Amino acid sequence: MVKARVGAMPTYPSTKTKQILLVASE
Q: Which residues lie below 8 Å from residue 13, measured CB to CB, with a gap of 6+?
């Protein structure tokens, strides 16, 4: 699910993606 989210938002920078991953993890 997390990977799909990242793939769906490739426009966001790596920093933003990392934040999303952390949020998704929680």
A: none
